[in-house]
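Blackboard transcription, Thursday session:
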Amino acid sequence: MRGKGIHTNDPHIQALARIVGDEKSILYKKEDLLAYDCDGFTVHRHLPKAVVFPKNTEEVAAIVKYCHEHNLPFLARGAGTGLSGGAIPLNGEVIISLVRMKRLVSVDLENRRAVVEPGFVNLKLTNSISDRGYYYAPDPSSQYCCTIGGNVAENAGGAHCLKYGVTTNHILGLEVVLPNGEIVEIGENGIPDPPGYDLLGLLTGSEGTLGIVTKITVRILKNPEAKQTVLAYFDRVADASQAVSDIISAGMVPAALEMMDQTAIEAVEAAAFPVGHPKDIEALLLIEVDGISSGIAEQIEAILHICRQRNVREVKVAQNEQERARWWANRKTGFGAMGAISPDYLVQDGVIPRSKLPEVLQQIQQISQKYGLRIANIFHAGDGNLHPLVLFDAEKPGETEKALAAGSECLQACAAVGGSITGEHGVGIEKKEEMRFIFNDEEIIAQTNIRDVFNPKNLLNAGKLFPTPGRCVEVKKG
Amino acid sequence: MSLRESDIKQGPVCTTGSLGNYLWNDLPDPNKWADCVHCGMCLESCPTYEQTGQEQHSPRGRVHLMKSVAEGKLEINEDFIDPIFACLDCRACTTACPADVDVGGLIEEVRGQIRQAIPLTGWKAFVSKFFLQGVFPHPTRLHALGNLLKLYQKSGLQKLARKTKLIHIMPQHLADMEAILPEISEPVRKKYKHANVIKAKGETKHTVALLTGCVMDVMFSDINEATIRVLTRNGNDVVIPQNQTCCGALHVHAGDRETGRELAKQNIEAFQHVDRVIVNAAGCGCMLKEYPELFRNDPVWHEKAEEFSRKVEDISKYLYDTGYEIPKAQLNTRITYHDACHLAHGQGIRQEPRAILSSIPGVEMVYMPNADRCCGSAGIYNITHPEMAGAVLKSKMENVPEDVELISMGNPGCMLQMAMGVLKHGRNQKVVHTVQLLDWAYQKEEGKEDRT
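(Written on the board underneath:)
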């Protein structure tokens, strides 16, 4: 779009530009790099050294090899919608942007699998095969724009993972560029459970610290025969939580079971996709059941019955696809909608046993009061995956720090009831210190030892996922 | 917009305050970027991000850069200007944004700062001044230009230029534009100069004023004629205020907000005695509805602009809302509909034109995937950024169904661009305005004409 040629004397930039072929495939000026100083997690910012846009696996491998040989830190980035800072260039990394590797390589309906490049957008896979009656199940709320490569890195979940599982349950094979530039294939062409260690499981969710995925074989599913969606408004959070527990303990596995609290409702109703939820309810549930047609009506009836038993104010079934789509757009844009009621937000990602919902929500309320910051809750209630959204204004001195502390306390509350600090957003920069709520130093070192096997120089996405080593680090290195 | 250092000349500094490195009058509105939480839901909606994959060419990237100038982290220089002027201002991101961030409005405000900080110089300044200040705001000059074009077409010069390949001395994108120039006929402004009112057929239900537009009335006066016929057929008296002028959208898009304000004032006054202003060009309609944005620092004119903007309506929505007669004649044609950005994203008008088209007997609507994706016209973007506009157009044409005869839409800029797409990509569709189709059906019913 602009003047030709590379205008810098930096030999690394020149060498990287030669690998990717032209000046349109590398960014190195401050004005361009600034757009890459953070991802969906905006609290920490750092400028990368450069951003390169490879077109194929070989170029990725060549870039990685160059960085490895010249000791340049580097990391991979997709759409940059991650919520824990996994794509933030903390160490002034060379960012390898995979968004131009966005082909749908092949679709094999007979064997229910598809091969995509890492920059292929999640929702585009479903859109490409829906006319033939198939879809890709993992549906993070950012699925309109997030890439499947990024989903693999973060082991992304979504509203429907209660029934269908998270990304790792849908990955059949990976082509990976290792941190030294070597290209390897993992997974026996879609054969489930190959002998040997489960390397697919290890790589999926490794947050870009073990290698860069350049091709992905995913499982695709047949569209469910029928689908019904229920919206239920509750005056009290405790009743809504109890209804969630009742539904699961009645032996039903809804495709999705989502909850929003009053502050979250205020945001989505003030934003781009309002539904007309009442503002004075404490919580709403969005429940979807799917499967073969027979049995759906009975499940819906049972769900309505449970909601009424738990003092629901109003409960309704979506009358058509437009209504259902509207409810889901309202829910799925919930995080971005926070912009309508707050300049900044920080989203947490704790997991708790379902039975602890009312108790933990109560604690989050207390944390909110303690710090004087509003906290909205949008979450996958069915599997106990909470998303407390701490609302703050980064321009007010000290407020970012307060928000971080409040977020951290929410996670501590989750860990204290036997839960976890992340369900689907990853640890990244955001929650690396909170890893100590779950693991002791030995356990952390056991994991960084695994990382060192793949990434011995720690040039690939360093400073993420694990806390800065404590005193035991000398023991390990010794 | 590529600029050499030598082109850069510092403009006058603002006297009423500054915001970081925004130093000039008419500062951008910080509330607009405060709503952005950097979630990235806008990325896939953005045609320039789709083409480049680069985030400085994405909505959230641009918002981030514009905010960084206010924070003093960036200066207004060539590398900042590039992503800001490479934006198509198509507003698709505004539709996609969960927090309703007005990226288009911000882009326009910041372009205003850029043009005050670094006024255009050299031939770019000449061309910009000639067209934006010298021609568009002046109906007589515009009509004269139209007459020149007409002469070019009618005198055989066009044939000669095409035959002798003389046309090839023009840059390719301008030659492409020449190839799709519609046949020029008499502007309605001129034609109805002495008519106080064009009477409704039958009983008068409403009186409306028509914005004839600048380019519209020169290049597509037949669409203005069709609009008048459709309005009068449906019980509307139509007035054409003679002191109306260009809406100013091209100026505001280019960062010349001062001329934009002058034109806005003239239009607000020209239409002050009517209750309804009907527009058949989506870009103009959107601009008129956004006049209040231009007067954020001028309470008196802001109020007038607010009052004015409430009177403005697109022809398709007006007909849909007030009721129109369903034509009785059959058109027997397969068509597809393209959402003009400033109709769908800018004014939220999507269903009304489709409903009108579907209501015409014998019209079969064929679904166009990504119908609300920009075609690359974007005002004069196809002239300032031909390469990007061409790439965006190519993506658009890939979505146009093969088996249709007509592509219908509600904006003249899109019509020219889509006609170019049809020509360049070897397609055979005709490009029409929604209101033209309705008009043809009425005409056929009246036994006057069968144009399909």
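Lecturer's comment: The mean pLDDT of chain A is 93.
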